[in-house]
Each structure stands twice: as C-alpha cells, then as structure tokens.
Write a structure and sequence with these properties.
Blueprint: E1 2-9, E2 12-17, E3 25-27, H1 30-40, E4 46-51, E5 57-63
Parallel strand pairs: 1-4
Antiparallel strand pairs: 1-2, 2-3, 4-5
Pfam family, one: DUF2188
Organism: Stutzerimonas zhaodongensis
InterPro entries: DUF2188
Length: 74
C-alpha cells in the first residue's frame, strides 16, 4: 500500500507521496486538496495522512474506503 501526506507548504496545501519532495497535487485550501485527493485516489490503494497547519497528523484515510481497517470486524 502506498503512503501519501497532505501538508501545508508556504501558502498552499499539497499532496505528496511519502519520501518524495515533489508535490503531486496542490490547492489553496485544505478542503480543496482533500477533494482533489479523493479523485486522485480512485484507482489507487493507499493511505493518506492529513496534517494540521503545525504538521501533526490529524486524520488518516485509506483508499479505496472499503480497505479501511477500522471498517473490519475483529
């Protein structure tokens, strides 16, 4: 499973693959980057960590959503 991070960088929000400095997507607002990321992840199996302005992990989403381990019984 690939790992991605949504972080704030200067005056924009960006999506990067873990370990890569290159931004795959960028947007002016956090809401916009989350929406763009949802579309980008449609054909991928991945984990996306969404960070706060300060850089702490706020939330983690798994794509496709049915791969989310919290949705499984156990």
């Amino acid at each position: 499973m690939e790992n991605y991070h949504i972080t704030h960088d200067d005056d924009r929000w960006v999506l990067r693959e873990e370990g890569d400095k290159r931004a795959l997507l960028e947007a002016a607002t956090k809401e916009d980057i989350i929406n763009e990321t949802r579309d980008y992840m449609k054909l991928r199996t991945a984990s996306v960590k969404i960070h706060t302005l300060e850089g702490k992990i706020e939330e983690e989403r798994t794509y496709p959503r049915d791969q989310d381990p919290r949705a499984t019984k156990g």
